[in-house]
Amino acid sequence: MAKHLASIIDKITAPWTDKQVEALNRLQDEDRFHGYTCPGEHPVCAKDRKLIATRAGWICQCGAYRQDWAMITTNL
After folding, report:
1. What is residue 56's DSSP assignment?
2. Domain spans of the chain?
3. CA–CA separation, 21 vs 52, rounded Å?
C-alpha cells in the first residue's frame, strides 16, 4: 500500500535562522526545481542569476536585488 504525505506550503520572511539559510542555499544547488533568481539586470548577475540566502533574506550576486521571502514545503 502506498504511503501518501500531505504537504503545507508556507511563506517565510527574513530574518532567517542560520539553519534556514543553510537549507535554502542547499536547495538552490539542487536541480529538483527552479531556484530563486534575480532579474539579471546587471552584467555581474546576467551570467548567474541564482540568489544567495542570508540571514537578512535573498541577495543577488551584485547586491542590487534583494528579496525577503521564500516558500517552503512541510511534509506532514
Report:
1. T
2. 13-75
3. 9
